[in-house]
Amino acid sequence: MATEPEPQGTARLPLGPQAQGGRRAGVRATSVAAGRLAAATAAPAVQSLPNRTGDAMPDWLEPAMAANGIGSFDWDIRRDVIEADHRACAIIGVNGTTFDLSSEAFLALLHPEDAPVVRRRVERAVAELGQCGAYYRTVFPGGELHAVRFRGRVLADAFGRPSQMVGFVWDATAELHKRADAGRRAALREDRSRFIKEAARALSEAVTVRDVARVFTELPLPGLPPDGLVLAALEAGRLRILGASGYRQESVALYDRMPLEPFQPAAEAIRRRLPVFLASREEYRERFPEAWPRAKDTGRSAWAFLPLVASGRAIGLCVVSFDDARELDADERTLLSTLGGLVAQSLARARLHDAEHELAAGLQRVMLPRTVPAVPGVTTAVRYLPAGSGLQIGGDWYDVVPLPGGHVGLVIGDVQGHDVHAAGIMGQLRIALRAYAAEGHPPAAVMARASRFLADLDTDHFATCTYAEVNVDYGVVYAVRAGHLDPVVRRADGSSTVQSVVGGLPLGIGAAQEYQVTRFSLDPGETVVLCTDGLVESREMDLDTGMARLCEAVAGDLPPLEQGGVDPIEELADRIAARAADSAEREDDIALLLLRWDGPEGGLAAQQLRRRIGQADLARVAELRGELRDALRRWGVPELIDTAELLASELVTNAIRHTDRDAMFTARLYREDRREPRLRIEVEDESDLWPKRRTPGEQASSGRGLMLVEALADAWGVEPRGSGKRMWFELSAGEAA
User: Model-level pTM?
Assistant: First the structure.
């Protein structure tokens, strides 16, 4: 622990008795060295020393040294004998007044870290015939650590050779304690500086108010361990407890949302926007007597009330409390005040984030359906995941629309943009598309009208969308795609595939845009998956890779449906959404819609097909033929497909061409008295014009419909209704037919 720089390049002198022919060294208490040193300070460095008996210490020196506890020493370099007075012996830690002590023995008394430094400095002084000084530690016989300072000068003989070193020693133990205390304080300051940096980093990463409360209540204050921490926000004149540690939950609940009364220390801290420090229970009772009855039962004896001030406005309060009375010094108060400022800035930022998030979440909840309607024959599941950054609101949406005839419409879409404007457009478009679908328009017409609606809004935004009408009776899907993703179908065997759907331009691009319909079928238990591009596309993942990952997530085994358990389609939706939820920095929001066709329940209701055909919707006739083929195949009578399709087409076409109203088509398979199943097809209209059978000529292009019905059907007829009529025919299935 020597404080002076170590010598460089000095000659090493023998300091042990071996260098002097093995003479025994000794120490005798004397004060002569003090006189010699006093004389040497004014004498040339090279001189002959007077006889020791003639050396006399000045009269003024001994009282001064005694008064200041300073001892003297005389080291005969040639004989390696150290002579010291009794005060030097006491300071060095040597008992008695006479004893044997060489330079090596003296160095052995020093702290192992200090002995080499003292040796080098003495060697340099001897080599240079100069002065030296050092600060070193010694260990007393009882193990107590002391510190000593010495200052000495090397004297030369008549030939200019070093012969003696004389000097002073004094006790520096107080300096040792001071240095240790200074080191402790320096370490504490370093710990507190590190704590402020770590606290600032942790609070800057806290996003929500809950995060700020968690970080604050877990902070380990260095050198100032608190017994209780409370974080509260100021709301409408009340303090709402956000987090606490060191208190029982029921005790904290008593103070939550209590009015901030003016006689409380918390009210004074917030009003003055300055910390309030209370070092003892007596000080609390004296300064705030009205608030003391409530505080005395907390078991605390010292408090620090820190106002949280952000943008010049008090937004809350931190309370730091201690079990024992504690007078905080200036450094501790500065530390707590700095911490309060960091918490205030973090809390203000977190409250703004929470408010924005709540606004975005509320707006998104209003725009999206609150509930998905239950439709018999199908099971649906939906998910919505906001973007991982930004306002967390966007233009993605889903919808499930019950349709006339018991069918269901599926909508998935994404409006261009990721802001409040996009969300507003999405809400308008969702309502419009839902209205068009609920009116019973076919999928192509629904999409075309929605495109015109968005174009007429003149928002400079477009939207991608997929609309699918699902025939709940037979699992037939009629899908229309406007610049959106193809759906993914999970098959009954657990495999998955991308179902190709003819695409058109996004909605809002052109007012006269037309769309094509793609028809595909589902078997019982199969699921169609619709999603927006945020699930399958990002900066790190291209669309093909994303679709492959989606198919992988859709495929695979699912748990069986148990009574009262979670439906497997919900498990599938969670599995798909979990992959997207792993990324906290999603660039886009995600809408996900799943529908599983559960299949017919059996009986007559499950073996009946009923459709309304619009007067001007001739394309519906072709769709009806396809549905009829699927129905007969499912009912197990595929041998009737060709005949039934031909005759049904004739009846429907006649009803549309010769009336000015819509027609209702019904196909039903039934059995009577264990006979072969019979197919009955009926077409109703509101016209009173009765059909007439006629015989057309060879060149006639019409008039053969009833002839075909009469020739191919097992039975047919026309029945009057209250308004209009019903035409029907029947076909028998089986070998008899």
Answer: 0.51
